[in-house]
Automatic annotation (TrEMBL):
The chain crosses the membrane at residues 50-67, 74-95, 107-126, 203-221, 242-259, 271-291, 303-322, 328-351, 363-386, 392-412. PANTHER family: MAJOR FACILITATOR SUPERFAMILY (MFS) PROFILE DOMAIN-CONTAINING PROTEIN (PTHR23542:SF1), PTHR23542. Pfam families: MFS_1 (PF07690). It comes from the Bacteria. Gene3D superfamilies: MFS general substrate transporter like domains. It comes from Streptomyces jumonjinensis. One of its GO terms (molecular function) is transmembrane transporter activity. This is MFS transporter. InterPro entries: MFS, MFS_trans_sf. Keywords: Membrane, Transmembrane, Transmembrane helix. The keyword Glycoprotein does not apply.
């Protein structure tokens, strides 16, 4: 039944006065992020996930400060962190597979409890001056920490299936959130450890992680359904195109690891942290902006374009470092950071497309594992070049690694492997 026409507002010197029954239109266009968080339950699980994700940038810095301060050895601290990273690369895909099979709440909470106990054990071992091997064992126990960013992206993929534009915006938001957490986490850890006591960063991170995961897991309405045992037990690793994409992620990880170590070696001062923060700012801003761009229909093609842009921009830090100018290097890192978020968003969206339904958590974690492996390789390579022939040459590694990633993506697309 048609509604009777509403009376227009009468204008007065103080502004329009609306007639009884007149309501302002509610269908005003909103931005993509405002529309994204109109999704029921999205704000609640995002808040919990951000709280759980912040400690991801705190743990390694806190452990280095705590162990080096107690044992007087950065080499030992670095070795403990490297061992924990290796343990995570082995354990994380299995944790993610269990998460897909039995549900996020049933696996993430107990896995987090185990990881928190590992962090607490590390604090106790440091305080009691326990043998060095106990530090390795305790930090390795934190490898059960669930991939909180991957779980959040899996929820978005479940809630927004059939809406590629909204999923593109969600992935852009998640990438920006990653950058923000990894930018603020180390700063928070350093402040806590220096202002309070050396163990404060680890203890705070453990508390935030457990609280955030519990809050996140409590949002059962948005949780992807558990799949049980998948037919044939197939892993996303066997999905067509996934090995080629993981190779691209591995090379991209080399970019991240090499860029960080090269900057630390080149400056060897407090400016290094500030400049790496600028890189994260550039990536965070680019990620949010990229979320407003129309989603790509040809994802492999868009990934190639992003990697080509990354390759070009990664030469800027190398050129700036050769001048010896810190302001120029800061601008170069800001620009280089702007290329990483669009690349990661496109790559993650492609992971979601290639991963068989019911394996999203594992697919996301495999991508993260590949990146972590690349970070380790990039850090080691850039560190060696920084010593011989010199710090400036370490910046050649991220540029070359980005070019390799672009070539791998182009080859995979030409062979229709993506």
């Amino acid at each position: 039944m048609p509604h009777p026409p509403q009376a227009p507002p009468a204008f007065t010197p103080g502004g329009p006065v609306f007639a009884p029954g007149f309501t302002e239109p509610r269908d005003r266009p909103r931005g993509p992020y405002a529309r994204l968080f109109q999704t029921p339950g999205s704000r609640a699980f995002t808040a919990g996930n951000l709280l759980a994700r912040l400690p991801m940038g705190m743990f390694s810095v806190s452990a280095v400060i705590m162990i080096s301060g107690s044992r007087g050895s950065y080499a030992l601290a670095g070795a403990v962190i490297a061992a924990g990273l290796a343990a995570t690369a082995l354990v994380a895909p299995w944790t993610a597979r269990l998460t897909d099979r039995y549900g996020q709440a049933r696996i993430a909470v107990p896995a987090t409890v185990l990881a928190v106990l590992g962090s607490l054990a590390l604090v106790v071992c440091v305080r009691l001056d326990a043998p060095s091997w106990t530090l390795f064992a305790a930090y390795a126990a934190t490898a059960t920490t669930p991939n909180t960013g991957g779980m959040s992206r899996a929820r978005w993929a479940h809630l927004l299936r059939g809406d590629p534009a909204a999923l593109h915006t969600a992935n852009s938001f998640e990438q920006a959130a990653d950058e923000l957490c990894f930018m603020l986490g180390p700063v928070l850890a350093a402040v806590l450890c220096s202002a309070l006591f050396p163990e404060a960063g680890t203890l705070t991170g453990a508390a935030l992680l457990l609280t955030g995961v519990v809050l996140f897991a409590a949002q059962r309405a948005t949780e992807p359904p558990a799949t049980g045992r998948r037919a044939g037990g197939r892993s996303p690793l066997r999905a067509p195109g996934m090995p080629a994409l993981l190779a691209v992620f591995l090379a991209t990880g080399v970019v991240f690891g090499a860029l960080e170590v090269s900057t630390l070696a080149h400056l060897d001062s407090g400016w290094a942290g500030a400049l790496l923060g600028l890189q994260a700012v550039g990536s965070c801003a680019a990620g949010l902006l990229y979320g407003t761009v129309r989603a790509a229909r040809d994802l492999p093609g868009r990934l190639m374009l992003c990697l080509a842009a990354m390759t070009a921009l990664m030469f800027l830090p190398l050129l700036a470092a050769r001048t010896g100018s810190v302001p120029l290097l800061a601008l170069a890192l800001l620009a280089a950071g702007a290329a990483t978020a669009p690349t990661m968003v496109t790559g993650v969206t492609l992971v979601q497309r290639l991963t068989p339904r019911g394996g999203l958590n594992e697919g996301m974690t495999l991508a993260v594992t590949a990146i972590l492996g690349g970070i380790a390789v990039g850090a080691a390579t850039a560190g060696r070049l920084a010593e011989h022939p010199g710090p400036v040459y370490g910046y050649a590694v991220p540029a070359m690694a980005a070019a390799v990633a672009c070539a791998l993506a182009a080859l995979a697309k030409a062979r229709k492997a993506l």
